[in-house]
Amino acid sequence: MSKPILLVTNQVPPDRVGALLELHRREGLKVAIYDGKTHHGSDGVDDPGVPFIRSSQRGIYRAAASGRYRAVIATSAGRVALPAAYFGARRAAVPFIYWTGIWHQIATPAHIAAAPLVRWIESHADAVIAYGPHVAEYVKDHGATNVQVAPQPVDVDFWSKPGRAAAWRQQLGEPAFLVGVAGRSEPGKGLELAVSAWQRSGLAAQGAMLAIAGSADAGAEQPSIAALGQLGAGQMRDLYAAADIWLVPSLATRNFREPWGLVVNEAMLQQTAVIASDAVGAAAGGLVVNEQTGLVVSAGDEAALAAAIQRLAREPELRSSLAAAGAQAAAQYNYAAWAAACSAALKSVAAG
């Protein structure tokens, strides 16, 4: 039996388990998990469902250099883990593949200091797996030549099952029009902007409501806003189904730019029309195409977001057409497509 692939990452969020299972089925996988900050809005799972080890960031070098793997794939997270994986793979004389969703320079002092090394790894990796075309262009600008785009997937079967919309609409008082948004109370997520744009839209006076998932306090004092707090996957699916439109208003900050935004995929699969900002990876990466699979507005533009909300409220035919096209497009962003792109990257470096 051939040696497995070593995939180095920090906490594995629940929505990534299915993707790893599919790649393991195709290629044989061992996941090296180190502790570190995750940007997925959820804690990592205890068991990713595939063979795994837990390691310190410095211990990643020993694993990558051990000779037990036929290639090493590492994510962009972690201050030490990425170079440890790269130089460990070089020590073992096996291909190194960089997997990244970064598409702009994060401007914290630590990231600026690390930028020369990260860009050197980008240009010297045997292959790069990018979240989307926006990320591919970014790493190509830094000298990467062998780049594969792996579409950011969700569990299409789960998220496309009919949600129980009636239960949420009843709980929320049967609003005439329901707008949904999800996110943490962090500057890059744009929740305050969403609340301001909602107020500016004037739809509250017509019996409409804004439902916020993930934050228990944003706008909670307003009768036309329901702050729902953290919701489970099934509850989110039902809320997507209940919503007439879904907002993804992420902002570009010095510390953050949304690598993708899987909430886009999830809402689309419930055939809910999406409005996203151009600071959302799913928009920059081609899933949300303005006037085709959703509406795209400039990040931070409150007036434009309010106008887009008003437009979809008064144009149900447009809303329906965007929802249908979005669902069809999002169905292609599945685990098999992601794993196939990873397999192509491995094949390109003779490690498939």
Features:
2 domains, 6-stranded parallel sheet, 352 residues, Rossmann fold, alpha/beta
Number of strands: 13
Note the quaternary state here: single chain
CATH fold-type name of the largest domain: Rossmann fold
- From the N-terminal CA to the C-terminal CA, the straight-line distance is 13 Å
Please give the structural blueprint.
Blueprint: E1 5-9, H1 17-27, E2 29-34, E3 52-55, H2 59-64, E4 71-75, H3 81-92, E5 96-100, H4 109-124, E6 127-130, H5 133-140, E7 147-149, H6 156-160, H7 165-171, E8 178-182, H8 191-201, E9 209-213, E10 225-229, H9 233-242, E11 245-248, H10 262-269, E12 273-277, H11 281-284, E13 295-297, H12 302-314, H13 316-330, H14 335-348
Report a brief summary of the structure.
The chain has 352 residues and is α/β, with parallel strands linked by helices.
What does this structure look like?
This protein is an alpha/beta fold and 352 residues long. The protein folds into two domains: 5-153 and 334-348, Glycogen Phosphorylase B (Rossmann fold); 156-330, Glycogen Phosphorylase B (Rossmann fold). Helices cover 40% and strands 17% of the residues. The protein contains 14 helices and 13 strands. The chain has helices spanning 17-27, 59-64, 81-92, 109-124, 133-140, 156-160, 165-171, 191-201, 233-242, 262-269, 281-284, 302-314, 316-330, 335-348; strands spanning 5-9, 29-34, 52-55, 71-75, 96-100, 127-130, 147-149, 178-182, 209-213, 225-229, 245-248, 273-277, 295-297. A seven-stranded parallel β-sheet has the order 3-2-1-4-5-6-7, sandwiched between helices. Strands 10-9-8-11-12-13 form a six-stranded parallel β-sheet, with helices on both faces. Helix 10 links the parallel strand 11 and strand 12. Helix 1 (17-27) packs across helix 14, helix 7 (165-171) crosses helix 9 and helix 10 crosses helix 13. The longest helix is centred in the first third of the chain and has 16 residues, at 109-124. The model has no long low-confidence stretch (mean pLDDT 94).
